[in-house]
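It is worth pausing here to work through a concrete case rather than discussing structure prediction in the abstract. The textbook approach is simple: state the sequence, then state the predicted structure, then interpret. We follow exactly that order.
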Amino acid sequence: MYCPNCGTAVDEGSAFCSNCGALIKGNPEAAGALQGEKCAPSRNKKPRTGYLLSLIGGVLTFLSGIAYFVLGNPVAGALGVVFAILIIFFARRMFAAADVKKVGFFGFIPFVLGWFILIASGTLLPFDIVVSIAGLLTVVGSVSLFSGR
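Step two, the predicted structure:
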């Protein structure tokens, strides 16, 4: 008998391939193992809400930075692009971490940048609703990442 996935020879009674781990079809033990796998709760699945909100905030910050470059404000444009890269990088790092507490100081970077963007949009860049929304999404996303949501 051969594995349908990788072609490796497997024993007649095997439920899974010893090389690639694929399910061997036609084996009653394999069907039972697959059924038990489907019923088991997923323990490794992390909530993505905070991560997605932080990513959307980072993308909006990036787009606002590009818009400021086009409108002739290179300082706000450069800050927007740099902040967006930092937000996305550190939000990804927080999401990928097994334990948020182990991320340490760097885990606060999206949160701090989000608050700075919110303050800047109210004082330095008046009436910029997109930047305000980006800052708010980044702050809410960072808090959600810390709380595990």
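Step three, interpretation. The radius of gyration is 23 Å. Helices lie at 28-39, 49-71, 74-96, 109-123, 129-147.
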